[in-house]
Amino acid sequence: MKVLAFDGYACSILSYLILSTCTHHSVDSATPAVRNIPAMHRLGGVGLAAFERQQESQRSFATLSSELSKAQVDHLQTQLTQFRTALARFAKSHRDSIRRDPTFRHAFQRMCASIGVDPLAGPRQGGWWAELLGMGDWQYELGVQIVDVCVSTRERNGGLIELGELVRMVGKLRGVESGVITEEDVVQSIKTLQPLGAGYQMIDVGGGKKMVRSVMKELDDDQGVILAEAQAEGGRVVEEILVNRRGWTNERARAALENMLLRDGLCWLDAQDERHGRAYWVPSAMRWDE
Amino acid sequence: MQMELTPNTTPSGFLLPSIHAAPPFFTEQPTPSTQSLFADHWIRLILSYARHRRLFILRIEDAEGPGSDWDEILRNERINRRVLPSYLSSLIAVLVSKELAVYEPAKQTRSVLLLWRQPEEWAEALHVWATASGQLNTILTFYEITDPPIPSPLSGLPIPLLRKAINVLTRSGRAQIIGVADGEGVRLFSGTK
């Protein structure tokens, strides 16, 4: 229900904006153009008089041009003000729903994106969220919690965490009363962390699984494959899996696994594996129930 | 292999953390950062289990075969993994380096006395118990302290640990070691504190 009503409103904002653009254009910017036309007709004259006329017409053009741009800027300003007023009115009247209801929040984000407004960018720190919704804090808070979870689990998972796990742990950190957090919220928030250069990045390991990397470490293709296999196996990877399923040589499989273990600390060693003696476990792909 | 890593309660009623269900937890890790994480987990586990069962001594032999007091944590039959003696040996070294255990007897490294309470805490417990049971200013044998007719917080305390606790009290003038007929005894005073 809410979403439907909301989309309807989004459409009406859009159509309102388009309409107002058209009317303003015909009234404001067309008039000064007509007033400054006369000099234009006799450009083909001869002699000194012609030269002066040309000079004069150039001046008029310059005036016309600046008047035109001024009119356009004014017009854009008016448009922007109107748009912001509409967006603000909308955001204010639906503020509670935007904060509380993730579906509604994403519909709002989508609307903002479709009309080319980034709710996080804006004239003030915190952007539109902060200005219109008091949501700047909300995004910051979520960002801080994401960093918190990533850092506190880093020694256990080597700086690589499965997105679902991250969402679950952030949710746990926030408690029940602060509302539901979805994967989209977290993805959005990770994007806002990017300018910090802390290396937070989403990695698609295939099979619909996403991981969040919180350390400045380049993962090579082989490691990506190992992560994907680990996801499928509840965390356990052995050479044989890579050889049989991916057609790797034993040497390549062993080298990639040992690198992951020793160089990157991204997996753990199990030296008591019943079938292979030596198995590698990727903690970020293991299913922890704590 | 699909498995959930869940906490598990042992027959003795001890709650094992979920990492205890992870096969690699029973292997000494070649990556130092991982090993230090594992060692922290093991130390916490060993000390809290010792407290739960009032165990004071840990030996490398405890990892050598089933039947030891420590089987519930040094082995996980559900995943068929166990701590090997060589791994337990290095965990014991970490315990000693963090002053959470002392080699007992001294001059060997195969057996430790666990300090899941520091000697200062045992000293306080001893003083509180002697005060509450009206045994200040009388001579108590070590045996009377560690094996009292009514079980006390000090029941079963190993003599070397009792001696450390008494030393703490002696330094603050609250205890005096006295030779008695069949060995040693102690007299406790109320002291300033």
From TrEMBL, chain A:
One of its GO terms (cellular component) is ESCRT II complex. SUPFAM superfamilies: Winged helix' DNA-binding domain. One of its GO terms (biological process) is protein transport to vacuole involved in ubiquitin-dependent protein catabolic process via the multivesicular body sorting pathway. InterPro entries: ESCRT-2_cplx_Snf8, Snf8/Vps36, WH-like_DNA-bd_sf, WH_DNA-bd_sf. It holds the Pfam family EAP30. Belongs to the SNF8 family. This is EAP30/Vps36 family-domain-containing protein.
Automatic annotation (TrEMBL), chain B:
GO terms for molecular function: protein homodimerization activity; structural molecule activity. One of its GO terms (cellular component) is ESCRT II complex. PANTHER family: VACUOLAR PROTEIN SORTING-ASSOCIATED PROTEIN VPS25, VACUOLAR PROTEIN-SORTING-ASSOCIATED PROTEIN 25. Keywords: Protein transport, Transport. It comes from the Eukaryota. Belongs to the VPS25 family. This is ESCRT-II complex vps25 subunit. The keyword Protein transport applies. GO terms for biological process: protein transport to vacuole involved in ubiquitin-dependent protein catabolic process via the multivesicular body sorting pathway. The keyword Transport applies.
